[in-house]
Amino acid sequence: MSVSDLVPVRPLIGLTTYLEQSSTGVWDVPAAFLPRVYFDSVIRAGGIAVLLPPQPADPDSVGRVLDSLDGLVVTGGKDVDPARYGQAAHPATDEPRPDRDAWEDELLRQAIARELPFLGICRGAQLLNVALGGTLHQHLPDLVGHGGYQAGGGMFNTVDVRVEPESRLHTLFDALAGPHSVPVYHHQSIDALGDGLVVTARTDDGVIQAVELPAVPFGVAVQWHPEQVADDLRLFTGLVRAADRYRTGHNQTRHNQTQHNQTQHNQTQHDQTQHDQTQHDQTRHDQTRHDQTRHDRREPS
């Protein structure tokens, strides 16, 4: 038994990042970054964090990235470009980040297609909804009459959400009864629901706070910020466990494919050997007959 057989293999979890102007010491440059609490949560839940900065979103490149991952976290950040869901920008909507929108949209689409476990957080939940054909409320104060979902100044507010019974989220929260307090910092939310999504949590005023995609083994997205609750890793643990199952199943599939390919290769070699032997035997037979014929012709009458 090798050392690798004794040490559990931790799933690789990709996390999308910001791409913003950043000042660090003497430098003031565009930079890819992500608050540490995101990847710390993944690591503490048992995963290995891999950062995924925005880059050209051609399908082949995205596919190669996802080939190496066991799970995906689509993180928070600036507003999704409303042009993606057919609306003009509200005055309060952020300037679009087309590079990030395109990159994360393609990541989500391909993750869904291959049933890669994923967790959307805040913007990530909104982008998932848009990627599946849904729309967003661009400015919640216009809808609910207050700014309590985004207190400002980088300060998270706390709201109570009610989780739908029998949902995956309900299971992750140990069949939680009654409201669950969560940290929020958002001025937008899901409006028309994307194809295949179901709502699994709301606040009392009806704002959607979580959705799931039942068509995949683990597709959960929340409007709140679970990474801000250091002593509650349930969402991240659920993702990492699902990613581990995905990795195990994926490796088994690859193993079966390797065995299948080896069997085909061996059969091809066997068939080629038989073919070559048959040709060799036929050639010897033909040569023997040819030699015998020449010999017979040389015999005197």
Automatic annotation (TrEMBL):
Q: Which SUPFAM superfamilies match?
A: Class I glutamine amidotransferase-like
Single GO MF annotation: gamma-glutamyl-gamma-aminobutyrate hydrolase activity
- List the InterPro entries: Class_I_gatase-like (IPR029062), Peptidase_C26 (IPR011697), PuuD-like (IPR044668)
Reading the lineage from the top rank, the first entry is Bacteria
Residues of the signal peptide = none
Q: Does the keyword Phosphoprotein apply?
A: no
Q: What is this protein called?
A: Gamma-glutamyl-gamma-aminobutyrate hydrolase family protein
**What is the source species?**
Cryobacterium algoritolerans
